[in-house]
Design brief:
The complex is a heterodimer of chains A (266) and B (506). Chain A is α/β, with parallel strands linked by helices and 266 residues long. Chain A has 15 helices and seven strands. Chain B has 506 residues and is of the alpha/beta class. The chains are: A alpha/beta (266), B alpha/beta (506).
Chain lengths: 266, 506
């Protein structure tokens, strides 16, 4: 089986550690994952803001980059949802028959990470170790657009050492919503403030989710509040093992010392 | 004597003001969560809920597919049953018909059953201009009308008010328009309802003409259906001599049997009740029983415009249950007024643009008043895919600006993004630039994010909307793409520039 990683543009540019964690995790599970270098973005930012014409070349680039793979795995419920539900709309709009055919091929074989691990690989215990108090936020697109159900929780429950606590009002949107976070920043922040409050109420040290864009929003609020909660992508927890646990997502020792120095200066 | 939505600012501006109203926030959070939980509990009791939703959507879809035929059947059945059918292209025509009926009976007041269609066409204001007072008899509508307020919810138009505010409105205003509230009025719900009942009773007994809408119009039998909880509707539909019903053309269903799924879906979705308390049905005139003169105004007012929209037409399936409002995280925080229409919340965000087009700034802002979280689609009893319609409406807003001589900054940014994202080499260069910017930001930043990453600091321009309330990590020194190329996918030595070893290829 030829498996491609669609790392997503947000992870590529802003959260490379998540991509590295997916690579580490999938290799540990026996998957020789490839990274097609021609990939860029799933086109969701354009589509969801109403720029369908602008999305056409981006979708074309997507289907070209991932042609020939048996599975495309992405650490984002939102991007997987965009590929599976929106690419066909964009192709339809383009009027390009070849693009429609190509989309019909790539869309169904694109999986969100937990779908791929649970459904395709048939694994729920990925052999991870993560001895922290963690709460999980099901992002809207993974929950309602894709319907990943309890797959993320099942994977997390199997992690050794983890203390998983329920998030109150978990299924309510965090308020990110792509360009919504900027176009309706006040409402977005009001929603995020309530989500952050629920996260703090759990007493968790780490908030985990399957979409770094939502985590960037909630984490940005928690950070501004100096709430003492960090955010991590699900892949980074699942990639953690006894030997590496100190590192992924968290600061390496040197970085921590460096940030302490910086904090002292400010 | 009531407010108006005319001249409301675009959604983000109206929302900002609403978000600062602490009383509103508190009232709404309490009310939406209560009704949301109630709905969830009674829906969970129905094992075949999904099949029921499909059946409900099917009934409405079938009616819309052949709307012209069903409307003609409806007109024929109604006429046969003794009703007079009028066709109104728009709000002005509909209001003129109702006013004409009232004038022909020489009345200066009518009683009203709660109706969205009459709110949509601004009937009360139009009648007022003709010297006719229109008395709302639904409790929440009465509160809005007495408070010279605007409705903020489809089912509970006064949802933004709590009982202390209601008491104050009753004490202050009831005496101006009829029987005053008792001086010892408390804010107990039963006491408030009692005062409303006494106040309304004299209006029910006096009125010669009533105005209603309809939840459903059955084509084959010529039957109109009104579904309500308080019994005020039943009073209006049976006591007066003349009844005028303003009915949107999308309310038609083909047969009496089609009511079956609809009447099972509606109460559980709407009020969270298993069965509806007062369901009134009438077919034209029944000699010696109820109104002896019955008018039905079939209203277009943008509905054929919506019907012509391939993606958006599904919004015409809406049965106005308001479940989508009650679960909407945006509605819960900003309330209904910010949408600038009698149709607020997720359905309002698509219906107003569909009925009116997106040429004015306020309506064009509505499709963006959503995080696309999908909670509305999940609860909608007739399976309207509101998020997909929102995205399609956004595209219509964008397309309507494609000819602009000076493009919006957003359009320029999206074009640039499309150019960058169409070719991985261009994206790689952009990431290199952002990595360099990240190093610079890192030097100036005073903030470290929990977990150790450096924050980007406060940014200027549109990004200030983000960093005003949220920290943002500075871009990393190396993108994933660069890491993969440098380490051959983490298969050889993975020393990053800070000298720490990351467990990339283990
Ligand atoms: S869109 Fe659906 S959920 Fe919303 S009011 Fe209409 S029928 Fe109810």
């Amino acid at each position: 089986m030829r498996v491609a990683l669609q790392v997503t543009c947000v992870n590529d540019a802003m959260f490379p550690d998540t991509g590295k964690a997916v690579v580490r995790l999938l290799r540990r599970l026996g998957v020789d994952v490839e990274f097609p270098a021609a990939q860029t973005c799933c086109a969701q930012p354009m589509v969801n803001t109403g720029y369908f014409d602008e999305a056409v070349p981006v979708v074309r680039n997507f289907v070209d980059a991932f042609a020939g793979y048996d599975a495309v795995v992405t650490p984002s419920g939102s991007c997987a949802g965009s590929v599976r539900h929106q690419h066909a709309l964009v192709a339809e709009r383009s009027g390009d028959a070849a693009l429609k055919t190509a989309v019909a091929e790539t869309a169904p074989k694109t999986y969100e990470l937990t779908e791929f691990i649970v459904d395709v690989l048939g694994v729920t215990d990925v052999g991870a170790y993560f001895p922290h108090r963690v709460t999980y936020h099901p992002t809207c697109h993974s929950l309602r657009m894709l319907g990943v159900g309890d797959r993320p929780q099942r994977l997390l429950e199997a992690v050794r050492g983890i203390q998983l606590v329920d998030l109150p009002q978990a299924e309510e949107c965090c308020g990110f919503g792509g360009t919504f976070a900027l176009k309706n920043a006040d409402t977005s922040v009001a929603m995020g403030a309530d989500k952050a409050r629920h996260v703090r109420d759990t007493g968790a040290e780490v908030l985990v989710a399957g979409d770094n864009s939502c985590l960037m929003h909630i984490g940005g609020m928690l950070s501004r509040q100096r709430a003492g909660v960090r955010v991590m992508h699900l892949a980074e927890i699942l990639a953690s093992t006894e030997g590496t646990e100190a590192e992924p997502g968290g600061p390496a020792v040197g970085e921590r010392a460096e940030s302490a120095k910086k904090g002292g200066r400010g | 004597m009531s407010g108006t939505f005319v001249g409301m600012p675009a959604f983000p501006t109206a929302a900002r003001a609403a978000l600062g109203d602490t009383q509103l926030r508190s009232n709404l959070a309490h009310a939406t969560h209560t009704i949301r939980d109630k709905r969830a509990a009674v829906v969970a009791e129905v094992e075949e809920w999904e099949e029921l939703r499909l059946a409900g959507a099917g009934v409405k879809e079938a009616a819309l597919r052949d709307l012209a035929t069903h409307l003609e059947t409806l007109e024929a059945s109604l006429t046969r049953a003794g009703a007079t059918v009028h066709w109104a292209r728009d709000a002005a025509e509909a209001c003129a018909i109702v006013a004409q009926v009232a004038h022909s009976h020489g009345v200066d007041e009518v009683v009203k059953v709660k109706s969205m269609a009459t709110g949509e066409i601004g009937l009360n204001e139009a009648l007022e201009a003709e010297g006719i007072a229109a008395w709302e008899t639904d409790l929440a509508e009465l509160i809005v009308q007495l408070g010279e307020d605007l409705p903020s919810h489809i089912l509970v138009p006064a949802i933004h008010r709590n009982r202390a505010e209601v008491r104050e409105i009753f004490l202050r205003r009831m005496g101006d328009v009829g029987r005053p509230a008792p001086a010892d009025l408390t804010d107990e719900p039963a006491v408030l309802a009692g005062a409303a009942r006494e106040h309304l009773r004299e209006k029910f007994l006096r009125a010669k003409v009533a105005v209603s809408g309809a939840n459903f119009a059955v084509a084959d039998t010529g039957t109109l259906v009104v579904v309500e909880s308080e019994g005020n509707g039943r009073m209006c539909l049976t006591l007066p001599e003349v009844l005028v019903s303003v009915v949107g053309i999308e309310k038609v269903v083909a047969t009496w049997g089609d009511l079956d799924p609809m009447l099972r879906l509606l109460p559980r979705s709407s009020t969270g009740e298993r069965m509806n308390p007062y369901t009134s049905t009438w077919s034209g005139v029944t000699p010696g029983d109820g109104p002896q003169e019955v008018h039905v105004v079939l209203l277009d007012n943008g509905r054929t415009r919506a019907l012509a929209d391939d993606v958006g037409r599904q919004a015409l399936r809406c049965i106005r249950c308001s479940a989508c409002l009650n679960v909407c995280p945006v509605y819960e925080r900003v309330g209904g007024h910010a949408y600038g229409s009698v149709y607020p919340g997720p359905i309002g965000a698509i219906l107003n643009p569909l009925l009116n087009g997106v040429s004015d700034e306020q309506t064009a802002s509505l499709p963006y008043a959503s995080s696309l979280c999908g909670a509305c689609f999940e609860v909608c009893p007739v399976r309207i895919d509101i998020p997909s319609v929102l995205v399609d409406q956004r595209a219509q807003v964008v397309d309507s600006h494609r000819g602009d001589r000076i493009p919006k900054a957003e359009a320029v940014a999206m074009k640039a993004a499309a150019w960058t994202f169409s070719d991985a080499r261009r994206l790689g260069l952009a990431e290199r630039a952002s990595g360099l910017a990240g190093r610079v930001m890192g030097r100036f930043s005073r903030t470290t994010l929990p977990g150790g990453r450096t924050a980007a600091g406060r940014l200027p321009g549109p990004a200030a909307g983000w960093t005003g309330a949220r920290d943002l990590p500075a871009p990393p020194k190396e993108s994933f793409r660069e890491w993969w190329a440098r380490t051959d996918g983490g298969t050889h030595d993975d020393q990053d520039e800070s000298g720490t070893t990351k467990g990339g290829g283990s």
